[in-house]
Design goal:
188 residues, Arc Repressor Mutant, subunit A, Tetracycline Repressor, domain 2, 2 domains, 76% helix, 0% strand
C-alpha cells in the first residue's frame, strides 16, 4: 500500500500559487503560454513548477479541477447568502463565465485524457449536483417552476456560452440568463 505524505506548508503554498497564476495566465493568453512565465508570476523557479506539475497537461488538469471546485462550492455558498432564485441566477452567471474562460482548457484536456475520462465524469457529476441542488432549492421556495429540469437548464445555458465570441458577451449572456430566469418564474 502506497501512502502519500501531506504537503509541507511551503509546498502547498507554492502549489496553490502556481495553480492560481496558471489560471490567470491561461485566461489572459491561452494555454500555450510558456511555463516559465507561470513560474515567474508565481514567484517560484521552473524546477518547483515541474516538481508539482511534471507536464503542461498536469498543470492544466489542476487548474481545471480547481475551477470546477470553486464553481460547485459557490452553489452552496450562494444558497446561504441569497434567496434560492437569486442564488440560481448568480450561479448561472458564474457558470457562463466559467465555460467561456475554460473552453480551450477543456479541449486540451479532452485531447489528452478523452471526453469519457474519470476526470470529466467526476467534474460533470459535481456540476450536475450543484445545479440540481440550486434548482431543488428554487422549486421548494416557489422561486421557479416545478417542471424545470436541471439538465435542460444546463444545456440552455451551455448554448448561451457559445455566444462568447462577441466583445460584449458578458452583457449578452447576462441578458439571456435573466430571460431564462424569467421563463422559469413564469406561472409560479
Amino acid at each position: 500500500m502506497v501512502t502519500t505524505r501531506p504537503m509541507r506548508v511551503d509546498a502547498r503554498r507554492n502549489h496553490d500559487r502556481l495553480v492560481a497564476e496558471a489560471a490567470a495566465v491561461f485566461f489572459e493568453r491561452g494555454i500555450d503560454v510558456p511555463l516559465e512565465e507561470i513560474a515567474r508570476r508565481a514567484d517560484v523557479g521552473i524546477g518547483t513548477l515541474y516538481r508539482h506539475f511534471p507536464t503542461r497537461d498536469a498543470l492544466i488538469e489542476a487548474v481545471y479541477r480547481r475551477e470546477v471546485e470553486q464553481l460547485c462550492e459557490a452553489a452552496d455558498q450562494l444558497l446561504v447568502e441569497c434567496p434560492p432564485g437569486q442564488a440560481l441566477e448568480e450561479w448561472l452567471q458564474r457558470f457562463v463565465a466559467y465555460v467561456a474562460t475554460k473552453r480551450g482548457m477543456a479541449m486540451a484536456l479532452k485531447s489528452v485524457v478523452g471526453a469519457d475520462s474519470e476526470l470529466f465524469v467526476e467534474t460533470h457529476q459535481r456540476i450536475h449536483a450543484a445545479v440540481n441542488g440550486l434548482v431543488d432549492a428554487g422549486v421548494r421556495a416557489h422561486a421557479i417552476r416545478a417542471d424545470v429540469d436541471p439538465m435542460d437548464l444546463l444545456r440552455a445555458v451551455s448554448g448561451i456560452c457559445l455566444a462568447t465570441d462577441r466583445a460584449d458577451w458578458r452583457e449578452h449572456a447576462a441578458r439571456l440568463v435573466a430571460l431564462l430566469m424569467d421563463g422559469m418564474r413564469y406561472g409560479v
